[in-house]
Amino acid sequence: MGGLGRYLARRLLLLVPVILGITLVVFVLMNVVPGDPLYSLIDERSAGLDPAVAEAIRRQWGLDRPLYVQYVRFLANAIQGDLGRSFVSRQRVTEAVVERLGATLRLGLAALVVAVGVGLPAGIVAATRRGSAVDAASMVAAMAGVSMPVFWLGLLLMYLLAVSHRWLPPSGYGGGALRYLVLPALTLGLPVAAVVARIARSAMLEVLRREYVVTARAKGLPEGAVLVRHGLRNALIPIVTIVGVQAGGLLSGAVVTETIFNWPGVGRLLIDAIGRRDMPVVQGAVIFIAVLFALVNLIVDVTYAFIDPRVRYE
Length: 314
Prior knowledge:
The chain has about 325 residues and is mostly helical. The chain folds into two domains: about 5-80, no CATH class; about 95-305, MetI-like fold (Orthogonal Bundle), CATH 1.10.3720.10. Helices cover about 75% and strands about 0% of the residues. It has twelve helices and no strands. The protein has helices spanning about 5-30, 40, 50-60, 65-80, 95-130, 135-145, 150-165, 180-210, 210-220, 225-260, 265-275, 280-305. Helix 9 packs across helix 10 (about 225-260), helix 10 runs parallel beside helix 11 and helix 11 (about 265-275) runs antiparallel to helix 12 (about 280-305).
């Protein structure tokens, strides 16, 4: 096994305690919040349920056992790919999450395109025109984007583009139509674009001062070739790093965005499950999000070797 193979194996092994820690935290939090999960299993009209029947329901779902026994049982089933059934819909959690996963990945990918498509050019232009009005305007916009809460930006865009001018639908999925994707993608992607712009500007400024860039310009190479071949290529490591971190963060940020725009993704599923105290669904959704986050970061680490041949995995 080569260096890259050993590195991947080590990272995947380290993922195991991370997932275990996440499941433990979620399990404990869901069991210490006020309320009885029994009421997620029965009709609200059955508040006066016979104690014997209530006890039978608890026994059926394993809620009568100590918490540590419930947690160990959950882990044992999860290893086999069984995350349990929803207290509310009785659907298998794995099926429920997989059904919503496509919508979340579609939104995350669109938001990532917005983030890189807006943030990277803005950062490069700001670096090449350091100290100008364009540089100042770009950084002010980036600071505003970083400071702006996602829910406020979403409501603002909804008012401007959907309510005031009626250019786009305010919410919904619309069978996956592109026009329904624009508002949530902008809401999720623009704050990340601000972060990418700041990092891209900083990385480009550092690279453009290097001797090889000065030499390339002295040889008379076109400015575009200097910026792309000698500037951007050598500034990609920090840019790719922040894009990877933010791409993982898009999954958690999608929880708020999907709620605002009624987007049927894993984030919306998670919010609904928390409100209903549907513990199996909450645990399953969090595990999926955590695994995706870790895998995105692993992919970013692996791409370093393709960006910079000097990077070696030992």
